[in-house]
Specification:
This protein has a three-stranded mixed β-sheet, covered by helices on one side. By secondary structure, it is of the alpha+beta class. The N and C termini lie far apart (about 55 Å). Helix 2 runs antiparallel to helix 4. The chain contains five helices and three strands; from the N terminus they run αααββαβα.
Length: about 140
């Protein structure tokens, strides 16, 4: 009897938890207004969109893979630099993450520009110095 009471109590708690009892038809679908948050800010009109997710077409995936490979194979880059995020959407490449020095930022940007073209790279890399100095 005690086990049954505990089970029913747990079931009631889970049913009351927001989102737990949500069915698949209740969840936002990819591309719906609820799924994608509006990240635009006042004054952004006319500004090229920033790739925040990886495009799923073959050209975007291939471009991202070639940039990632160039970054990973470059022995001049630190572990942190090799782990920056590279997103490509409709040929627009966005670089995000932390690097230790401006030289690494320049190298990564050069790899991306060589693959995507001069006007197709958005550099959002941060130079933060040595990771041990920030801990």
């Amino acid at each position: 009897m005690r086990h049954l009471t505990q089970t029913l109590t747990l079931a009631a708690l889970l049913a009351a938890w927001p989102g737990f009892a949500q069915t698949a038809s209740d969840r936002p679908t990819k591309g719906s207004a609820e799924h994608s948050a509006d990240t635009s800010k006042p004054g952004d009109e006319g500004v090229a969109p920033v790739a925040v997710t990886q495009g799923d077409n073959k050209a975007d995936v291939t471009l991202t893979m070639s940039i990632r490979k160039a970054i990973e194979d470059d022995k001049r880059l630190s572990f942190h630099a090799k782990n920056v995020k590279v997103f490509t959407t409709n040929g627009q490449v966005t670089l995000r993450g932390r690097v230790i020095a401006n030289q690494e930022r320049t190298i990564i940007r050069e790899h991306a520009t060589a693959a995507a073209g001069e006007n197709h790279v958005i550099d959002e890399l941060e130079v933060r110095g040595s990771p041990s100095a920030t801990n």
